[in-house]
Write the structure tokens for this entry.
Amino acid sequence: MDETLVETLQLERLEVNLFRGTTPDNRPGRIFGGQVIAQSLLAAYETVEDRICHSLHCYFIRPGDPTHPIVFEVDRSRDGGSFTTRRVIAVQHGQQIFNLAASFQVAEEGYEHQAPMPKAPGWNELPDERAVRQEMIRSDPERFKDWMDRHQPIEMRSEDARTYFRSGPSEPESASWIRCRDPIGDDPRMHQVILAYASDMNLLSTAMRPHRVHWQTPGFQSASLDHTMWFHRPTNFETWHLYVQDSPSASGGRGFIRGAIYSEAGVLVASVAQEGLIRMRKAKD
């Protein structure tokens, strides 16, 4: 039986502020960025009591090695009256691969407003992307099998799931329903950690849509550079959430993407921003 995502993300405590994590699918390649975000946030939470993360800001520095454990070092930057700040450095082979700064807040009441959830087809009107992936593998196995035939702990349903691979350029916008496939439990921190894991999904592909490129385009390079997330309200990520994305700008070999995550009831629970590398490799002389 496969591990649940909660089990996969768990960390081993090595010292007071030092933790170790592993990658479940340890085939050669690179680690999914959402995994490192989630494990770094979890490491920070191991040093924080009675406060919930409201924002995180991080940089992807080097590709992660899925065949090797990751060591997470937490710096207890500040413990204030209302806010706590932590910095986490993820290390492999003696080098930083990622760093994260996160801020945590005591529960407070305050003013409230939010942008309304955009209109979109309901999750129950759309196919599971896993089925879409399997169809693409059957129709073009050599091109897609190694990349797409992997366990997906986040269930996703989209009106145009992966069809832009074949249909040509489109507007830099996307909307997908997402939720964790496995039970998460009652800890609101773990729901937040797994939402952070899922927040890295589809962002760069949204920026690729106008440019006739995708992950398998020969000579195309892509990588997340930085990632920011704001948690507005607690949520149950075992239920469906609408993840709406748009990319207002691409320039200098980089694409910028914004995201908003709504509960099925239309509550805005988190906002996301990311910039990533999207470029064609330069031809060698």
Summary: Residues 153 and 278 are 26 Å apart (CA to CA). The mean pLDDT is 90. The first helix runs from residue 5 to 9.
